[in-house]
């Protein structure tokens, strides 16, 4: 906070007396300056003067003596191989210590910030300040949790004979050609395991070098890394040193560390917020590319949990809105809670982004996809008849009436026949309807016996198809009698209406469509989103993580008219959680087979984090009461740690009834906990949530409870499931545990009583 106030004053006037900007005698770089942040801490900066303009490069805030120690040795220069501007030290220094103190300072500043009022309006900046990312207090590695009652620790993997980078075909020469420091490269090529490489990478003085090593260690090809970080361009050596340094600060690799605070409005916002949320300012080069690039058709961004897919969508929405204030931009996702979070974060990113409240208004319209489907259906009004005719072969539905949950089993009973149990059940029928019948607009038995059933795991012969259609007819007849539609039907009807409206010259509802959590959408919803926008430049941008599919069936977009192949890329660096938590979560995925929305096999082995922390703890108990005791103790311990607020601790469980029991049980043991369902998280209590509700959220400490055999995977009536439906249901349970585990930023713990869940391996 104080660092931000310092930066703010500096952009106004660097001669302000309170700043005490001073050179250091005998410093290795004559540009170095230190400035007063408060009694005990000083900022370290470089002052560049070029063509009469002054630019400060903000290096960080340190305790007084360390600041001087650093300032004596730090040198700002460009990397001779690639031109990236970096800070180097004339002699190796114990950076880790300084960083620790830096983080302590941030934690202290955070506490003080709570007491202090934020400063008011700002004047226009005269200088430009390139600010280095301030390590946030939350990035501080917490104390390892004590491993009480631990029964299961992950087995230590065997160390392979060949070093990690050698196995990926990378040697010291290749690293030198990228511009990685010789000493760092020499150590990196010796690392045998990912953990060792991560430890080496953490010592990199330049952040881009750390990220490059992590990317190469995860198996990313060297050419791809070179392209991603802009290391393939020829170095421009013209001009003065000052000019080269300024140019090197604009390099894609430098922009992971430096940003330009020229825009006073931007700085004011960051200062007033009292937190320098890195995601608002610093993007990974690949994230930046996704924000800025134009695509001639639907583009897809895949990526593991916490790789910043949502961050990219928010920046992209803002970019599109800034480029064309008249543009109608849809930012949508699966649930209302997630849409609310997207809206909040978009406003946080930039309160000047126009938010469209009504369908058809210019600006960014942020809404859950079901709400949008209904809004479009309501718009259709009387015109909806033609659309229901196209989809269902009948008219006269009331769009506000929903089907009830038992409708499928009633239809199965009413149709009779001798279908095998694994077909004659609600799960199979609802999926057949959503995956084949509705998206293919099947209205008659003749159409149904001929329709391709691509992607459906269970084959049906002609006789079985006739019988399945009987069930579907019963289902439709019951709906018609009530005039009611289910969620999928209304999406298909709204899609048909929007299509007919566009074909009749009525135009589209949006100019750009951005979708988060795409893996959870059904075919009818994809078809609906497809017709919201005219095919063409920047029409659709989709973010997905197939490993996080926890609803519905696997969808291949090209089957439903959305062709993103050739415009698909993947983010692999996890910004949210530690390597230890991520490693644990990825092990959960090991037993499953996954395909993305392009129908390509998706692996999770490339996901990495640059952060380190304690290993996840698994607590075993003999009874539910004992599990609650252990959980209450653990939460009490977490909440006593400095800086940990209750609402940053979450307890996640598989089902709503378990949530009720856990919240009651923990409250009886003195834990201040609140169950959170539709509403958003409020301060002052530990958060209890179902794992489904936790999708898209994050907490510093996460405890997954009741992860026992019989509770996760949740009990299924297995006899009634076809093999394919059972496999898919189990895959979703696996994904759910992965989603839940990847909500933890710093500390993850898992508990169960009785026998552990088979998903724990
Ligand atoms: N470039 C960045 N710099 C710093 N932090 C970042 C960056 N990108 C993302 N983050 C942070 O990482 C976390 C995860 O980001 P985000 O929610 O966008 O990821 P996601 O891929 O959508 O995750 P999930 O699929 O798990 O919901 C957030 O706390 C976000 O602020």
TrEMBL record:
Domain UvrD-like helicase ATP-binding residues, every copy: 282-610
Annotated spans, Disordered: 115-145
Binding residue positions for ATP: 303-310
Protein name: DNA 3'-5' helicase
Group of enzyme by EC: isomerase
Gene3D superfamilies recorded: P-loop containing nucleotide triphosphate hydrolases
Keywords from the named record: ATP-binding, Helicase, Hydrolase, Isomerase, Nucleotide-binding
Enzyme Commission number(s): 5.6.2.4
Keyword ATP-binding recorded: yes
Protein's organism: Micrococcus lylae
Basic and acidic residues: compositionally biased ranges: 115-125
InterPro entries cross-referenced by the UniProt entry: DNA_helicase_UvrD-like_C, DNA_helicase_UvrD/REP, P-loop_NTPase, UvrD-like_ATP-bd
């Amino acid at each position: 906070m104080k660092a931000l106030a310092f930066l703010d004053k500096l952009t106004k006037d660097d001669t302000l007396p309170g700043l005490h900007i001073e050179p250091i005698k005998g410093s290795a770089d004559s540009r170095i300056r230190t400035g007063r942040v408060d009694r005990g801490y000083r900022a370290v900066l470089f002052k560049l003067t070029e063509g009469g303009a002054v630019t400060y490069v903000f290096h960080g805030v340190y305790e007084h003596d360390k600041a001087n120690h650093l300032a004596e040795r730090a040198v700002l220069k460009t990397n001779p191989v690639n031109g990236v501007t970096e800070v180097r030290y004339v002699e190796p220094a114990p950076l880790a210590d300084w960083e620790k103190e830096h983080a302590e300072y941030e934690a202290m500043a955070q506490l003080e910030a709570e007491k202090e009022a934020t400063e008011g309006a700002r004047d226009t900046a005269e200088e430009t300040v390139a600010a280095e990312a301030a390590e946030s207090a939350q990035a501080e590695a917490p104390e390892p949790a004590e491993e009480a009652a631990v029964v299961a620790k992950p087995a230590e993997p065997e160390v392979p004979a060949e070093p990690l980078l050698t196995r990926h075909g990378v040697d010291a020469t290749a690293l030198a050609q990228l511009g990685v420091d010789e000493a760092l490269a020499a150590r990196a090529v010796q690392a045998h395991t990912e953990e060792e490489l991560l430890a080496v990478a953490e010592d990199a003085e330049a952040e881009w070098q750390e990220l490059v090593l992590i990317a190469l260690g995860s198996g990313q090809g060297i050419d791809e890394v070179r392209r991603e970080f802009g290391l393939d361009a020829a170095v421009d050596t013209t001009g003065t040193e000052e000019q080269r340094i300024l140019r090197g600060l604009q390099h894609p690799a430098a922009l992971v560390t430096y940003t330009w605070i020229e825009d006073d409005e931007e700085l004011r916002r960051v200062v007033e917020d009292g937190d320098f949320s890195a995601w608002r300012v610093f993007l990974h080069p690949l994230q930046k590319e996704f924000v800025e690039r134009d695509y001639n058709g639907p583009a897809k961004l895949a990526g593991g949990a916490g790789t910043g897919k949502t961050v990219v969508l928010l920046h992209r929405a803002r970019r599109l809105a800034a480029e064309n204030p008249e543009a109608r931009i849809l930012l949508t996702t699966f649930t209302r809670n997630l849409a609310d979070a997207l809206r909040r974060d978009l406003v946080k990113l930039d309160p000047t982004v126009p938010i469209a409240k009504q369908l058809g208004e210019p600006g960014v319209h942020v809404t859950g996809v079901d709400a949008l489907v209904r809004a479009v259906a309501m718009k259709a009004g009387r015109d909806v008849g033609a659309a229901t005719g196209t989809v269902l072969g009948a008219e006269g539905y009331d769009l506000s009436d929903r089907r009830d949950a038992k409708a499928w089993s009633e239809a199965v009973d009413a149709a009779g026949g001798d279908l095998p149990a694994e077909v004659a059940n609600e799960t199979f029928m609802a999926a057949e309807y959503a995956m084949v019948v509705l998206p293919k607009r099947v209205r008659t038995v003749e159409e149904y016996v001929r329709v391709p059933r691509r992607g459906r795991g269970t084959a049906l012969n002609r006789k079985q198809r006739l019988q399945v259609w009987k069930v579907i007819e019963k289902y439709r007849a019951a709906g018609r009698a009530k005039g009611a539609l289910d969620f999928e039907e209304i999406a298909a009807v709204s899609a048909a209406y929007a299509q007919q409206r566009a074909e009749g010259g009525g135009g589209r509802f949006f100019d750009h469509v951005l979708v988060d959590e795409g893996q959870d959408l059904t075919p009818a919803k994809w078809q609906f989103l497809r017709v919201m926008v005219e095919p063409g430049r920047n029409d659709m941008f989709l973010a997905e993580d197939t490993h996080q599919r926890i609803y519905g069936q696997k969808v291949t977009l090209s089957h439903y008219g959305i062709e993103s192949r050739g415009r698909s890329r993947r983010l692999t660096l996890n910004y949210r959680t530690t390597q230890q938590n991520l490693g644990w979560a990825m092990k959960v995925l090991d037993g499953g087979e996954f395909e993305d929305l392009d129908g390509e096999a998706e692996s999770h082995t490339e996901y990495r984090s640059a952060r380190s922390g304690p290993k996840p703890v698994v607590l075993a108990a003999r009874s539910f009461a004992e599990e609650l005791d252990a959980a209450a103790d653990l939460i009490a311990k977490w909440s006593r740690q400095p800086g940990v607020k209750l609402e940053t601790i979450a307890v996640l469980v598989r089902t709503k009834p378990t949530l009720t029991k856990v919240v009651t049980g923990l409250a009886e043991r003195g834990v201040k906990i609140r169950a959170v369902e539709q509403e958003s998280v409020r301060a002052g209590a530990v958060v209890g949530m179902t794992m489904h509700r936790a999708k898209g959220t994050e907490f510093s400490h996460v405890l997954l409870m009741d992860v026992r055999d019989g509770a996760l995977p949740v009990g299924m009536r297995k006899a009634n499931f076809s093999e394919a439906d059972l496999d898919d249901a189990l895959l979703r349970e696996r994904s759910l545990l992965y989603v839940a585990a990847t909500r933890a930023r710093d500390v993850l713990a898992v508990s169960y009583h009785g026998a552990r869940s088979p998903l724990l391996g």
